[in-house]
Amino acid sequence: MSAPLPLPFERPILELEKQLSDLEKQPDPTAVTRESIRRIRTELNKLKREVYEKLNPWEIVQVARHDARPKAMDYIELVFDEFVELHGDKAYGDDRAILTGFAKLGDRKVMLVAQQKGRNLRERLEHNYGMAHPEGYRKALSKIQMAAKFNLPVVCLIDTAGAYPGVGAEERGQAYQIALNLREMARIDTPIVCVVIGEGGSGGALGIGIGDHVAVLQFAYYSVISPEGCAGILWKHAKHADKAAHALRFTSKDLLELGVVDEIISEPIGGAHRNHRQMATNLHASLTSALKDLSEIPKDQLLDRRYEKFRKIGVFEETIAVGQA
Amino acid sequence: MSTGPEIARPATPSMNDESSTPRRKRGVPEGLWLRCPKCSATIFRKQVEKNLRLCPECSHHFYVPARVRIQQLFDDDSFEEWYTELRSVDPLNFHDQKPYKTRLIAEQKKTGLDEACVVGKGYMRGRPVVFGLTDSAFIMGSMGSVVGEKLTRATEEATRQKLPLIIVSGSGGGARMHEGILSLMQMGKVSAALGRFHDAGGLYISVLTDPTMGGVAASFASLGDVIIAEPEALIGFAGPRVVKATVSSELPEGFQTSEFLLKHGFIDTIVPRTELRSEIVRIVDYCT
Ligand SMILES: [Zn+2]
Question: Does B171 contact chain A (CB < 8 Å)?
């Protein structure tokens, strides 16, 4: 595993991990050393569990954004057996922030749409930190439409701080393209599974987020606005991001309670960044099961079910009993 | 509708007028006289109010409160408001510098509206249409659960009644932060309803006013069969300050204005307020 950047709340874990690796490096360990190694391993697992059970929303944001957290490309390698990338949006250009193409999940063929943040500086620059322009959303939509034509289900992996807020993005219709994706994804006649794997940043996430089954990784988050953005507006300074993070209720637990996601996918002890393989296994299992369930829904019910899923989201009061005109 | 017909009444200055809501630049601020933000002329407030909220000197388009907009667009007393009993609650128990509930009450007092959105049915030069509006004065015209629900119901009702749908957007706030992820999901909900309306062959005319931003721009406001904007409105996805900070350079002249969007092909026409009703009616007549 690549060395994770030290998150403040991970310090005790990292210290213990250091102790452990020092001991493990000793040649010809004595019985006492071997016993210490065993003890520290147990302690370490316990500590990771404790720290990660108690993460507050602001800490969860930091885990979700962790440089070493598995990114779409990791899942493309670890979860899928094949990826045949299709680049064209057939209008403007190839947006590397969203990758699309045919993929195999076991024996199931799917269309994969994945926001790719990049795993190192070179990749992050190449993929614009996973922040897509209109052409990325257009590419995604056209591939999802093609998937329906050939009866392939769709898997969308969501991981973005948001749609890119730049001059070109505005000139090329960022708002229009996201709006179009929302409307069209609601009525494309093939099963769609969406998983927030890291950051679910507002409209930029929702732009590939309308589906029949929406899941979120345990330490991912999905929010109407970044905690920094929210703090900047409502607390007048981004330094209050931790307060905004608490107020916005965007952790996986909150999302499930609010009826916004259908499933929380467990992460390995200590977070996905500590064990990419285990995380990939969990994601594989979740996708396989969701796609199987959706494949059993009769075609003529799929879109009504998707419509109702979003139709019922929202909390309000109505003082007089519901009636119709 | 659930709540029985309610005829929109002319705005009284204390309730629905900007006189109770001193707005910064775009509105008509308090007082007998005001200064136009565009031409800097000092103009008589009453004259602006009589003139469709336009500057008599340069035709600058001032903010129009919901009830006044309805008066401007609809045949006299023909507008019936729907779903007036829908009220926002505080699903997240959201508390920034003041609690969301307190904020809602303050906004209701300030604007005379129950929420940022008014929907209903009315007649424009005798043509029946379903209508929705977001008022940028109510928590920046942002969309929470009630705004999403009202617009969705109105769209579903337009589908059922086979009537044209007209939505006038004004929202600097996009999706409402105080209801968190639920607000974001309203974008999906309304857009899905518009998809069904579209499938049923319905005509949707979207009218963009100053400002139309964020989650409102990135959902229903951009989905019209025909998209009209008032002149010089601010329209876009990301706020200009965010864009400026991201690109760390000066923004192009006229960035994110109606004229900018027209040039880049994302709206169909710019229509001054004096012509808005007749243009809507003209388009309705072509499509129905
Ligand atoms: Zn003027």
Answer: no
Structural domain boundaries enclosing B36 = 30-62
- Is B13 inside a domain boundary? no
B91 touches chain A (CB under 8 A): yes
Give per-residue pLDDT as tens, B46-87.
999 999 999 999 999 999 999 999 999 999 999 999 999 999
pLDDT at B15: 29
Note whether B103 and B46 are same-domain residues: no
- Domains in chain A: boundaries: 8-54, 61-311
pTM (two decimals): 0.93
State the Cα–Cα distance between residues B82 and A325, nearest whole angstrom: 9
For A68, the 3-state DSSP assignment is coil
Could you read off the pLDDT of A62-101 as tens digits, one per residue?
A: 999 999 999 999 999 999 999 999 999 999 999 999 999 9
Which ipTM value was assigned to this complex?
0.95
- Residue at B17 is within a domain: no
Exposure b/e, A181-217, CB count within 10 A at least 16 = b? bbbbbbbbebbbbbbbbbbbbbbbbbbbbbbbbbbbb
Check if the beta carbon of residue B60 is closer than 8 Å to that of residue B27: no
* Cis ω before B211 (30° cut-off from 0): yes
CB-based contacts of B4, cutoff 8 Å, min separation 6? none
Residues in B closer than 8 angstroms to A167, CB to CB, are: 243, 247, 251-252, 255
CA distance B86 to chain A (A): 5
Report the number of distinct structural domains present in chain B: 2
CA of B30 to the centre of ligand 1 (A): 17
Least confident of B5-14, B26-35, B213-222: B5-14
**Alpha carbon of A146: minimum distance to chain B alpha carbons (Å):** 18
- The class (CATH top level) of A61-311 is alpha beta
- For residue B234, report the phi and psi dihedrals to the nearest 5 degrees: -85, 120
Q: Known binder of ligand: residue B55?
A: yes
